[in-house]
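Record 1 of the preview.
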Amino acid sequence: MTSDARPPGLRERTRRAVHREIAQAAATLFLEQGFDATTVDQIAAAAGISRRSFFRYFATKEDVVLGDMVERGQVLHAALAARPAGEDPWESLAEAFRVLRASVGDPRPEEVALGRLLHEEPALHAKRLEKQLAWQAVLVPELARRLEADGVAAGTARHRAGALVATALACLDVAVDTWLRGGATEDLEALWWDAVATVRGRAR
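->
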């Protein structure tokens, strides 16, 4: 069996390489002098490109560290859609988060520091939560579809799916914050389940 997928061409590989270089330069500056104190001009200079070239890759400096949020939402949606019919919604969401975690891989020390910045810097934190709303936009309909398949009425399924996804993402946000503050050494999934258990009144 053959695949129609083709490796990216030279232009696309070059674009990805420049994209990574800009992101790395920005991350270094953010950690050294803070997010607010870092300008687009400084990022461009550190990456060896012009200000105009910077905006060919990123719409804002926030997008330098948040640009992959859309792709991560797609990973979550695909993972949720792949879960078996009739599975408990919490377990389905947990598995989707496991797939996302595996796709990201273990963070390097500088990525942990950047993650803390995302949670502690008000402007970045607000922007991240805003982008996370796009995750709800794709996860809620999928979970509602699954609930309907289990016999839940359409309106009720949408209502319950919205509550489940919003709660799951809020618990994920709290779990990641705790995980980052601890130097990313704790079990992230266990932290998420503990947050979920707390909300459901089942924490020990």
